[in-house]
Structures are given as structure tokens and as C-alpha cells.
Write a structure and sequence with these properties.
single chain, 29% helix, nucleus, mRNA processing, RNA binding
């Protein structure tokens, strides 16, 4: 009996198809939207033909370059309940179609990151943020700017690698503080004690009448007050939630009147029941005008007498020439290198490793005239900066230039176990100039665009002059922000500016006031620090 071969009855073509493996199912790209196809399956028309399908675009990882004037904003970083640059930018991205509805207000979902976090009132010319956005169709920058206020301007964007992060990939940042040249003049805008002590001397100082009127309208004090009791300080601090642009009190008259009231009562403290009454009466006196004794004292400051005979106002001959420029740059250079900047920030302890920062360079070689005011550009480059760090660095440098403090106080402030109350310059003059991505550009130079402000230099310069510089100059003309702050640079507000004596803590009260009469000579101080 013959046995049939089963292979003879099998179709060869069918056998070959069964032996072929199933093709792999392609995965969706994580960089695209939920719909990878270019068109949707749209509804059919009445005649049965399909309507044109809506296009779908891919997300792109990009870096956005933009500038802003910080006036009216509570800083860059988004903060619930506060008006911030980041909050307005996120809303503009949504309304421009760069962020879908389901991810609105959720920056982590589109990988959002910023290169620098500027403080309240601080501006920026070269700020950079990164994320995954829908940039198509063409016209993304125009759509974005149309949804932003004029004081925020987007210059452009560049494609970056998928792992790019604007914060982590930023090697260094450059900030500029636009400081009026008159701030470096030791005889300009001096404090009340210095002016009173100079009356009748060869180097007599002149009271600033304009600053005096501005100061009377400001209710609040600057600096660290160690000579008041707690209740006295609370009475002075009531209602002091004004803008920091005008928070400097020229004459500190409220404190003096509180001191007079308490001495008359023979008590060192003010009862809680009398706090509000005392504060109200003090403010009323300031609003209604000075008392007769104050008027006599003011006449002395004005260079006249009670009969109204006044001497002509002296004009300062200070200029930012070679000698002054070299001295100021020598002071700023002391900040360069790696130091512990715990005295130049808030809420960071000296033992915290984050208090150590590296300053690459700090100089002031350029001056610019804006609306009749001459400014010096203080440029600082560092890897990163802490809260208020640059403004405090400028504040102490100005105090040294005005002969209020010794240069050695900067080195002292770097000591880990020394706490010093460092003055802080107003925020209005500070702006972020540029963020640098040197390492990233070097690594990806063959496949990606260079990340820099070169392509937007002209547009950025126009924005800077029109919005940032104009705002700084007009604010100084109108409110005298820096001028009022200069009047607060005295030993009553900042007793630590003297330098620390042997065995003296930084919080100790200084009884003897050293007065400089405006000479351009360095004041000698005791510089030894008790390290025990």
C-alpha cells in the first residue's frame, strides 16, 4: 500500500506566505501631538465627498529669546496671585496656539524652563526659556507678541536638542546695574547727621531740598534698627507696605519724634494702647509741616538762618574720571572668585553650600547719558546669583566709594561666622543682559544653531533704550529713587558699615558717629574681627 506524500498537496505560494514574520507595529513619536497624521477623518459632505481635513502640527523643542521691562511685575517666576512675567508669557503661548487647552497652566507638561529668575522690578534684555511648543504654521513670533504687553518683546526662537533645558544648560549670566554717577560722589545726597555736622566747616555740605520734600511723603525706614525697642519699631513700621522704589526715608523724622515722646514720658517703651495714637499723631505732624525747632534746624541745613537768609547752593565737581574709575573697579574686583555670599542675600545660612557663588568678572568701565543723567554701567558675570545678591554687592560698593565703609569690609562679609547688615541698592537699575550657553554651542555646533543674542542684537538694543533705560532715567527724575536711598546710607541705619571692632558683634549698637565731610579720602576704620 502506497503512502501519499502530504507535501505534494500543499500550495508552495501559500507555504511561503505563512513562513514570513508579521511586520512590526510602529510606535508614535513622543515629540508629536496626540494625532501624528497630517489630516483628521473629517465629516462627510452632503454629496458624500470628504471635507478638507484639519492639519495637525508637531511639537518642537525650542529656546525662546525675549526681553521685558520689569516695572509693575512681581518678578520673572510665576507666583499664585501675583502678576509675573512668566504668567503672562504662558498665557500668550496658550493664546498663540503653542500650548494645547489641556496643558494650559501646567508648564511641566510642555517641559518649560527659564535661564534666569529675576526679582521684582528687575528687567531683562536677553532672557531665555525653553519647552516643547507648536510653532507652526508660520508667524509664531508675531502671534506671540500680539498676545503680550508692549513691555514684553519676543525676538525669536531656535531649535534645540530634545534634552535641552534653559536653566541647566546655561553656563553663565551677565547682569548690568545702571548706577547714576552722582551716587559715587561722597558729597552728594548725604545723610542728615553729616550735613548738620558740616555746618560752618570748610567742607560744608548742602541739604537736598528736593529730596527733603520727597522724603516727607515716604512713610517707612530702611536698614536694620538696633536702637529701638520692639514696640517702638512696630509703631514706626505701621503702614510701611509701600513700593521699594520709594522706601527710603530721608530725615528719619518719625524715629526722632518717637524718641522725643518717650523721653518726655520718662519711659523707655511705648504702651501698646498708645501705639496707634502715637503713629497717627506723628504722621499728622509730618503732613502738616515741621515744628518750629525743626524749621530752625532746617534753616541751618539750608545754609541760612531763621530770618530766611540763604547761601547759594554749592555745585559738586565730581566726575567719573580715570582715578575714580580705577578705584571703583578695584572695589568691584574684590567680589571676583568663589566666596561665601551669605551676607549678600536673605534666607540662606552661611553653612549652606548654596551660599558659595563664583563671580567671573565685575567691572564698571562704560558710562551712558540717558535723559540728562549720566549713568555708569556696572557689568557682572557669574555662574548664578542668589536673591538680592547683585543689589547688595552694588550697595556695599557704593558705601565704600562714598567713604562710609572701608574696602576691607567686603572680605569681612565673606567670613562664614560674621553677620553683617549690607545695604541693598534699588531694583530699578538692574537688568539681565544676556545668558550664555558656551558648552552647549560647542557640543552641538555641527547639527544645531548657536544659542546667542547675536541675531537679535539690534532689536534688543532698541528695546533696551526705549523701555528699560527710559524707565530707569524717568524714575530717577520723578521719584529720586537712588537719591533717597543714598540718604539712608548712614550709621543709624547700617551700623555695620563702620567695620567690626575687636570683641564687637555685628549687631552691637555704635554710640559714636563718624562723620565724613565729603572729602575724597579713605576713612580709616578698625578692621579686626572677633572670630571666637
Amino acid at each position: 500500500m502506497e503512502i501519499e506524500n502530504p507535501n505534494l498537496s500543499v500550495d508552495p505560494q501559500r507555504q511561503e506566505e505563512e513562513q514570513q514574520p508579521n511586520p512590526k507595529k510602529l510606535k508614535m513619536s513622543t515629540t508629536t501631538s496626540d494625532d501624528d497624521e497630517n489630516y483628521d477623518n473629517g465629516p462627510a459632505a452632503d454629496d458624500g465627498e470628504a471635507l478638507p481635513k484639519k492639519p495637525r502640527y508637531k511639537r518642537r523643542k525650542i529656546a525662546i529669546f525675549f526681553a521685558y521691562c520689569g516695572v509693575g511685575y512681581q518678578g520673572m517666576q510665576k507666583n499664585p496671585g501675583a502678576k509675573t512675567i512668566e504668567g503672562d508669557l504662558e498665557e500668550a503661548l496658550y493664546h498663540s496656539g503653542a500650548v494645547p487647552e489641556q496643558q494650559r497652566g501646567l508648564p511641566k507638561r510642555f517641559d518649560f524652563a527659564r535661564s534666569a529668575r529675576t526679582d521684582k522690578g528687575v528687567s531683562a534684555v536677553g532672557q531665555v526659556v525653553s519647552g516643547r511648543f507648536y510653532v507652526d504654521p508660520p508667524g509664531f513670533i508675531e502671534r506671540l507678541n500680539s498676545n503680550l504687553s508692549p513691555q514684553i518683546r519676543v525676538f525669536g526662537f531656535k531649535r534645540v536638542t530634545g534634552a535641552f533645558n534653559a536653566k541647566k544648560f546655561c553656563d553663565k549670566r551677565r547682569y548690568v546695574y545702571l548706577l547714576p554717577v552722582f551716587a559715587l560722589d561722597p558729597s552728594c545726597h548725604r545723610d542728615r547727621e553729616s550735613v548738620l555736622s558740616s555746618v560752618g566747616s570748610e567742607n560744608e555740605l548742602v541739604k537736598c531740598l528736593e529730596c527733603s520734600e520727597r522724603g516727607r511723603k515716604v512713610f517707612g525706614v530702611m536698614g536694620k534698627q538696633n536702637f529701638h525697642s520692639k514696640s517702638d519699631f512696630e509703631a514706626v513700621s505701621v503702614g510701611s507696605s509701600i513700593s521699594s522704589n520709594t522706601s527710603a526715608l530721608l530725615e528719619l523724622e518719625i524715629e526722632e519724634k518717637i524718641g522725643n515722646r518717650t523721653s518726655e514720658d520718662g519711659k523707655g517703651n511705648v504702651d501698646d494702647a498708645d501705639d496707634n495714637k502715637l503713629t497717627t499723631e506723628t504722621v499728622k505732624e509730618l503732613d502738616d509741616g515741621a515744628t518750629q525747632s525743626d524749621k530752625i534746624e532746617e534753616d541751618k541745613l539750608d545754609g541760612g538762618n531763621v530770618n530766611g537768609n540763604a547761601k547759594p547752593e554749592k555745585r559738586s565737581e565730581f566726575s567719573f574720571v580715570k582715578q575714580e574709575r580705577e578705584r571703583f573697579n578695584r572695589i568691584l574686583k574684590l567680589y571676583e572668585g568663589t566666596h561665601n555670599f551669605h551676607n549678600f542675600t536673605t534666607r540662606t545660612k552661611a553653612e549652606d553650600p548654596s551660599a558659595k557663588r563664583y563671580i567671573i568678572s565685575f567691572n564698571a568701565n562704560t558710562t551712558v547719558n540717558v535723559e540728562g543723567i549720566e549713568f555708569v554701567k556696572c557689568e557682572v558675570i557669574g555662574q548664578s546669583f542668589m536673591l538680592h545678591q547683585i543689589r547688595k554687592m552694588i550697595g556695599l560698593a557704593v558705601a565704600i566709594m562714598r567713604n562710609i565703609s572701608p574696602e576691607s569690609l567686603i572680605e569681612t562679609a565673606f567670613e562664614q561666622n560674621v553677620n553683617i547688615n549690607v545695604p541693598m541698592a534699588p531694583e530699578v537699575g538692574l537688568y539681565l543682559d544676556e545668558c550664555f550657553f558656551s558648552s552647549y554651542n560647542q557640543k552641538w555646533k555641527d547639527s544645531h544653531e548657536e544659542l546667542s543674542m547675536k541675531a537679535y542684537a539690534e532689536e534688543a538694543e532698541d528695546f533696551k533704550m526705549k523701555y528699560i533705560y527710559a524707565h530707569i532715567a524717568s524714575t530717577e527724575h520723578k521719584d529720586g529713587v537712588v537719591a533717597l536711598w543714598l540718604h539712608s546710607l548712614n550709621y543709624r541705619n547700617y551700623s555695620d558699615l563702620r567695620g567690626l571692632n575687636n570683641g564687637q558683634s555685628s549687631d552691637a549698637k555704635c554710640d559714636d558717629e563718624i562723620v565724613d565731610n565729603g572729602q575724597n579720602t579713605d576713612v580709616k576704620h578698625d578692621e579686626a574681627v572677633d572670630m571666637a
